[in-house]
Specification:
Largest sheet: 7 strands, mixed
Shape: globular
Strand content: 15-25%
CATH superfamily: Vaccinia Virus protein VP39
Helix content: 25-40%
Number of domains: 1
Number of strands: 13
Order of helices and strands: HHHEHEHEHEHEEEEEHEEEE
Radius of gyration: 18 Å
CATH topology: Rossmann fold
CATH class: Alpha Beta
Number of helices: 8
CATH architecture: 3-Layer(aba) Sandwich
Bound molecules: S-adenosylmethionine
Strand order of the largest sheet: 3-2-1-4-5-13-10
Structural class: alpha/beta
């Protein structure tokens, strides 16, 4: 395995247990049936009933199983051993049907030889991708002709701003970035030894998908994000986070829907 991905596998094994128990991840609500995916992906994905769905970077499979509850035939893949273990436990507890595979996304073609009606991935995934062109080729490889790829993800523009909307980072980056001794975004008491990430612009993502043979149906941008990027962020009833001024003037989330012709 790529040594940077190995660092991230260990990092995600440490996070999984903390996330599984953390109230923000809503495992309890998932098990009692009240957990819902965001209205954004529910609306933009449309009816998944009866469709085969590959969930890339599925973490401990709660979103994957939520799609399964809506009638999709789900396969979830993730690099973290503990995430896949928890995903299988959650599947059994919820009495749902899904298949989970532990693999680095870049090794997926070695272990999975199928195509899907829908390839899906969401929120907090691209940072872990070391090669965006190869990622897009893998995405395209798994979409059936006539099928779709859908991603909802935090907008790269948000990384540029601090909690007062002042610029703190450039938009363009290159190469891997190491973050030793960072707290987890959810369980702030969990300090992680190391993580490696890569930042991709919207142009990188769109161009890679197009060059991999996907036809972009849309690229949407939204003025809210899925997590409390800064401590002063406020949350609305749908679970989205905003700057405290409440203005809808910054792109904080994007979604892309693409078709394989
Ligand atoms: C922020 S989580 C995504 C959570 C997702 N929104 C969900 O459905 O719960 C990022 C996931 O990417 C996984 N990951 C990181 N690098 C990976 C890689 N190279 N191959 C496959 N999965 C990877 C991590 O293990 C983690 O579960």
């Amino acid at each position: 395995m790529n040594k940077d991905h190995e660092i991230n596998r260990i990092n995600w094994n440490k996070r999984t247990e903390a996330h599984f128990k953390h109230p923000d991840y809503k495992v309890k609500q998932f098990l009692d049936g009240t957990f819902k995916l965001h209205p954004l992906e529910l609306e933009e994905m449309g009816d998944v009933s009866g469709k085969s769905l590959l969930h890339l970077q599925c973490h401990f499979g709660m979103d994957s199983l939520a799609w399964s509850r809506l009638g999709a035939h789900v396969t979830g893949i993730d690099i973290s051993d503990d995430s896949i273990k928890r995903a299988n436990e959650l599947k059994d507890k919820a009495e749902l049907d899904a298949r989970f595979i532990r693999t680095d996304i870049f090794d997926l073609p070695d272990v999975l030889d199928e195509q899907f009606d829908i390839v899906y991935t969401s929120y907090g995934v691209l940072w872990w991708i070391s090669d965006i062109k190869r990622w897009a080729e893998i995405v395209a490889r798994y979409v059936k002709p006539g099928g779709i790829f859908y991603i909802a993800e935090t907008h790269p523009f948000l990384d540029m701003l601090d909690q007062d909307k002042k610029f703190i980072e450039p938009y363009f980056h290159s190469g891997a970035e190491h973050y030793p001794n960072e707290p987890d975004y959810c369980d702030k008491d969990l300090i992680l030894e190391d993580e490696v990430g890569w930042r991709w612009s919207l142009g990188d993502v769109v161009t890679s998908l197009v060059q991999a043979g996907m036809t972009i149906e849309y690229l949407h941008e939204f003025p809210f994000c899925v997590y409390d990027r800064w401590p002063n962020f406020i949350k609305d009833d749908d679970g989205w986070y905003f700057y405290p001024d409440g203005k809808k003037d910054i792109p904080m989330t994007f979604s892309i829907r693409a078709i394989k012709m």
